[in-house]
Amino acid sequence: MTISRVQLLVTCLVDRLYPDTGMAVVRILEKLGIEVHCPEGQTCCGQPAFNAGFPDDARAMARHTIDVFSASPDPVVVPSGSCGDMVIHHYAALLADDPAYAQRARDLAARTYELTAFLVDVLGVTDVGARRPGESVAYHAACHGLRGLGLREQPMRLLAGIDGATITDLPEHDVCCGFGGLFAVKMADVSSAMLARKLDCIERCGARTIAVTDVSCGMHMAGGLRRRGSPIQVRHIADLLDPDPEGR
Amino acid sequence: MSTASVTFHRRAEDALANRQLNATLRRVTARILDSRAAGLGRLPEPDVWRDHGRAIRAHTLAHLDRYLDEFVANVELRGGHVHFARTAADAVRIVTTIARERHVRRVVKGKSMISEEIHLNEHLEAAGLEVVETDLGEWIVQLAQDHPSHVIMPIIHKSADEVADLFRRTLGATEADVADVPAMTRFARERLRPAFLSADLGISGVNFGVAATGSICICTNEGNGRLVTTLPRVHVAMMGLERIVPDMPSLGTMLQILARSATGQNLTVYTNVLTGPRRADESDGPDELHVVLVDNGRSDVLGSSEAEILYCIRCGACLNACPVYQQIGGHAYGSVYPGPVGAVLTPALWGQEQHGDLPHASSLCAACREVCPVRIDIPRMLLTLRARGTDEGRAPVWIRQGIGLYRRLAMRPRLFRLAGRLAAVATGALARSGWIRSLPGPLAGWTTSRDFPAMAVTSFQDRWKARPAERSGTRRGKDPA
Lengths: 248, 481
Description:
The structure holds two protein chains of two kinds. By secondary structure, chain A is of the alpha/beta class. Chain A folds into two domains: 5-122, Rossmann fold (3-Layer(aba) Sandwich); 136-241, Rossmann fold. Chain A has helices at 12-17, 19-31, 47-52, 55-70, 81-94, 102-110, 115-122, 143-149, 153-160, 183-186, 188-205, 215-228, 237-241; strands at 5-8, 35-37, 76-78, 112-114, 136-139, 166-168, 209-212, 233-236. In chain A, the strands form two sheets. In chain A, strands 2-1-3-4 form a four-stranded parallel β-sheet, with helices on both faces. Chain A has a four-stranded parallel β-sheet with strand order 6-5-7-8, sandwiched between helices. The longest helix of chain A is centred in the C-terminal third of the chain and has 18 residues, at 188-205. Chain B is α/β, with parallel strands linked by helices. In chain B, strands 1-10-7-4-2-3 form a six-stranded parallel β-sheet, sandwiched between helices. A four-stranded mixed β-sheet of chain B has the order 8-5-6-9. In chain B, helix 2 (19-41) packs across helix 12 (248-262) and helix 3 crosses helix 12 (248-262). Chains A and B meet through helix 1, helix 2, strand 2, helix 3 and helix 4 of A and helix 1, helix 18, helix 19, helix 20 and helix 21 of B.
C-alpha cells in the first residue's frame, strides 16, 4: 500500500505526559517519507471512560474523535495498542445504534493503525534507521495491543531492526502489569501485587530498557521501578525507534 | 450464594498478605496452564475444535427451550424423573422431599457446583441427613468447614501439610496415614468406602445433559462419580439448565476441549454417560434416577447481554490464566464461582447489590478470553456489568464526577488543553525530578507502590504547533521506499 500522508492520533497521555514520545513518532514517520498531520481538535478517545463503565461518556468522546479524524480521509496512526483497540474495535459497537455515526465509526476503524502495526504490516518496514549502540532491550507485551490487536511480531521485528541493540527475553512478557486504568487506583492492592510480580521479572531479565507499545503501562512499570530505586528504564517503542533522538 | 462483596477488598487484602497462598497459586496455575497448552496441542487444529465447541454452545442456548423439552422427554422415556427448580429454595425442597419420601438417612455426593451454589449440604444436614462429600478436594473442604476456591481444584488454597493436620485433628490419622500425598489419598479412600456402601442416596452434578438420548455425562478423575451414581438406591443428578448439548456428537466435541482446558488430560479418567436408572436386565445402578434442572437466575441471564457467560463449561482455565486470581485466589470473590467467569456469572445471576465489586476486579487484560475453550468474551461482559453498575448508581462519586468532567473538557479542545496546562502547573509543585511520590485523595492508591510521572506544561500539541511551518505538515512526503 502506498501511503504518503497520515493523521496522528497522539493520545491524551502522550500529549500531556510523554510529549517527547509524540515527537519521536513524528520523526519516525517523516523519516519514512510520510507526511504527518496532527488534527488540532483531538483530545481523548474515550477509552478511560469506556473501561470504567461509563459508555455514554465514552460515546460522546468517540463521536468527537470521529469528527476530528473524519475531516480528512487519510489513515490514522496511534502510538498505543489500548487507544488503537478502542478506535478499531470498540467504536463500532458503541455507536452501532447511532445512525449518524455507525458507518463513520466503521470507516475510521478501517483506516486506523497502531504505530508498530502500521510500520510493519502496512509500510512493510522493520528497520527505521534507529541506532542504539550497546542498548539491551526487553519487550513487555501490553494487553490490549497483544490480545485486542494481535501485536506480537511487529514490535519484536522493529526492535530487532535497531542497529546496535541486543534483545533480551522478558519472563512472563505477556502477563498484565496490573495497570488496567482506574483498576490501579480502585484495586490498588491487587494492582500493586501484580506490578511487583512484573517488576521482579523485569529486574531478573537483565535488560537495561523495557520497551512497550503503550505509555500507560509504561508509566505504571516505570513508576514502580522508580519507587524501587531501580535504574531500569521503561520506554515507548517510538523512543527507541527514533531515528534522530536529539531532534527534539 | 455468597458473602457480601463489600468485603471484597478486605478478603483480597488477606489473600495478598498470605505469602504461602500466593506462591501456591502461582506454582499450581503455571503448571496447569502448561498442561492445558500441551493437552490442546495434541489435538489437530485445537482452535477449530474450540470454534466448534463455541458454535455448539451458542446454538444450544439459542434453542434451549426446544432442547430442554427433548432432554426431559428422553430422560422420562428411559425411566428417569425430571424436576424443575426455579429458585435455589425450590431445588433444596425438591431434593429434601425426595430424600424424606424415600426414608433416606445417608447421602454421598459427587462434585457439583450447583449444589454448592444452593448450599445443599447445609439444608440436607438441617433436615437430619448425614452428607458425605466424596470428591477428595470437596471432602477436605467439608472436613475443614471451608469453601472451595477453584471450580475444579477446590482446595488449591491448601497445602499438603494443612491437609495432614486436618486429617490428624478431625479423623485421628496417624503419622503413617499422612506420610505423603499417596498415603493421605489411601487414608481418604478407606474412610470414604464405607460411606459409599451404606448410602441410600447419591447426589451428583452433571457436566452435560444430552438432549437426543436423555443421558447425563459426569466427568471425574477419582471414580467417586461412578460410585455415587451407581451404588445408592436413589440417584439425584443436579444440573444447571444451561448444561445441555443436543446430541452425542456434540458431547464428543465438548469432551475434547473440556478436560484438555481443565487439566490438560485428553479425557478425564472417568467419563460416565448414564442413561436412565438400572433396567430390569442390569445388575448395577440405582432404582431411581431424578434429574433436578435448576434455573436460579439463569433464564434471566439468558435474555441479557451476559447470556454468553452461560456457554461456560466449568473448566477453570480462565481462573488459572487470570493474573488477579493468581494473586488473590478464589475466596476473595465471595462466591462459589470465582475468577473471571465468576466476576461475570455471580453478578449476572444474583445482581450487583452484593457483588458490585466483582466486575471491577479485573485489569481487562483478556487472558481469560484467550484460554476459554469456547472463547467467551469475558472482558466485554465485565464492561456491560460495569456500565449497569453505573446506571444503578454504584460508581463512586469522585469517579462519576471525574469522568463527567473529563468528558466535558474533551468535547472542547481548547479548554481541554488549557485544563491540561493548569493541571501540569498545579501538580508540578508535587513533583521531584519528574515524578510525583504522593498523590492526594482517591488517587493515593496509585502512589502506595509506584510514583506517578509529572505532567508536561508544554504538551505535544503545543510543541507541534510551535514547529516551523515547512515541517508541520505542509511539506509533501515521499512515498515510502
